[in-house]
Design a protein that fits this description.
The chain has about 450 residues and is α+β, with helices and mostly antiparallel strands. About 40% of the residues lie in helices and about 20% in strands. The protein has 16 helices and 17 strands. The strands form 5 sheets. The chain has a 5-stranded mixed sheet with strand order 15-14-13-16-17. The protein has a 4-stranded mixed sheet with strand order 4-1-7-8, with no helix packed on it. A hairpin with a 4-residue loop joins β5 and β6. α2 runs antiparallel to α3, α7 packs across α9 and α9 runs antiparallel to α10. The longest helix is centred in the N-terminal third of the chain and has 29 residues. The chain is globular. The N terminus is likely disordered.
């Protein structure tokens, strides 16, 4: 039965909103007696709003509880034995029937769902155009420009691009939740409003759409909350526009989150992600909005709230001294005495501090990058100090082969150790760049970003 869980854009119902919750009648006679859960989406959370057993005649009545009667978005009806349906609820009742023991889009019948035709029909048109574009692009690669077929394909390509652009534009005018959900799904699939020749223009469209247009209330109930936000945050982390532009985009997006629960859910998703990526410098923008809305701050977990207040170590401050309690494992062996490294006496023009763990795959990328660049860094009088968050010798020794530098320390206190706490490291890898006086110049999760700052 697990095979009959369907993609929501093929099976959803969309209807005009009503204040009073209505019933959804499902009839699946071949699954009589099976236990089920009916869930809604709130940010990253799935909330169960009804559970029960399918009756002997295969009937189920789902009624939205009063607490969620204003809900507008995706719901998920799941059999505990496997299988289920994703359906959009907008406050009006409808029915779903399947008389087959092998449910599929061709044998699931909806009644009272006029907007389902909009979603499935539009998806079919869009995919047909994209498939044809793929075939035409292949022809353009195969046939030389001087051949007639190449010229014919060029004309067809232009026609298909115009058709695609018109299809996307028509959708944007629709007031239906189906249209908003389809736009969100396109974000997850990398499909823009038109076909862009330049990849940077393609990315800029998505960045602008989330920053200026996306309805975060609709995203909150879509089931795609974390994926869309993580993609958007990474666009800005990797952008060449820098942190100032990122902060402006964050400010614009946050200003459009009018509900406290939406702002709180954004903080719960974005803050740990940004900390993990070493982007603490943009956290004050989030804190500024959330401090003005206490109810949104209350939605954060204790750990996330702690992260939000952890940007006390910022550029321009002296880095705390590094303290390793004996016994300390190093690149060459164990030391029986405590090791203290004073950051105002590092003896280098620049120092890169790397906080990592042996079991961390992303940390391995940073280790490899530093190892490949270390000879060049050393010639520029750059010191590299690696601080391990491992709590057992095996994990620490696993990554020793990458270290081309002598300063590699582990006192097996894990990520709760004094250095991780003093440097407010809550995600790994975390890298700091210090100047010759031990002043912090930059914090990042990417070794390349740190290295690029060294002149």
């Amino acid at each position: 039965m697990k095979k009959w869980i369907f993609v929501c854009c093929l099976i959803c119902l969309f209807t005009p909103f009503r204040a009073q919750a209505q019933k959804i009648i499902l009839h699946f006679p071949h699954f009589a007696g099976h236990q089920y859960d009916w869930k809604i989406f709130q940010g990253e959370k799935e909330v169960s709003v009804q559970s029960g057993k399918i009756s002997k005649d295969g009937a189920v009545t789902c009624t939205m509880p009063d607490l969620y009667r204003d809900y507008r978005g995706m719901t998920r009806w799941l059999l505990k034995s496997g299988g289920g349906l994703d359906m959009i609820y907008t406050g009006r009742g409808f029915s779903v029937e399947c008389l087959s023991d092998k449910p599929g889009p061709e044998n699931i019948i909806y009644t009272g769902n006029p907007e389902n035709d909009f979603l499935t029909g539009r998806h079919r048109r869009q995919q047909t155009i994209l498939d044809k574009l793929g075939a035409v692009n292949h022809l353009l690669q195969v046939y030389p420009a001087k051949e007639a077929l190449h010229q014919t394909a060029l004309k067809e390509q232009e026609s298909l691009r115009l058709q695609f652009e018109q299809t996307q534009a028509d959708r944007s005018k629709s007031p239906l939740y189906a249209a908003r959900f389809a736009e969100i799904v396109d974000l997850t699939r990398g499909i823009a409003d038109k076909v862009y020749e330049n990849r940077s223009d393609h990315i800029r469209y998505f960045n602008d759409y989330v920053t200026q247009t996306l309805n975060f209330d609709d995203l909150y109930t879509s089931g795609h909350w974390a994926q869309v936000l993580h993609n958007w945050l990474m666009m800005n982390i990797r952008s060449q526009d820098g942190d100032t532009a990122f902060q402006k985009r964050l400010d614009s997006a946050l200003a459009r989150m009018t509900q406290d629960k939406i702002l709180g859910a954004f903080g719960q998703t974005a803050i740990p992600f940004l900390v993990q990526k070493g982007k603490d410098e943009v956290l004050p923008v989030i804190a500024e909005h959330m401090n003005l809305r206490p109810d949104s701050m209350a939605a954060l977990s204790n750990t996330t709230r702690q992260m939000l207040s952890s940007f006390k170590i910022l550029a321009g401050k002296k880095a705390p001294d590094l303290i390793f309690k004996a016994p300390v494992s190093t690149q060459t062996g164990k030391k029986s005495a405590d090791v203290i490294i004073e950051t105002d006496n590092l003896g280098a023009d620049y120092t890169i501090l790397l906080f990592y763990k042996g079991s961390c795959h992303l940390c391995e990328d940073s280790l490899i990058t530093l190892a490949n660049r270390y000879k060049s860094l050393a010639r520029q009088h750059v010191r590299v100090i690696a601080v391990s968050g491992d709590d057992n010798p095996q994990a620490f020794e696993k990554k020793l082969k990458y270290h081309q530098w002598p300063d590699n320390f582990c006192d097996f206190t894990g990520m709760d150790g004094v250095n991780f706490n003093n440097y407010a490291v809550m995600g790994i890898p975390t890298l700091y760049l210090l100047d010759k006086k031990g002043i912090i110049l930059k914090k990042s999760a990417m070794a390349d970003e740190i290295i690029e700052l060294i002149h």
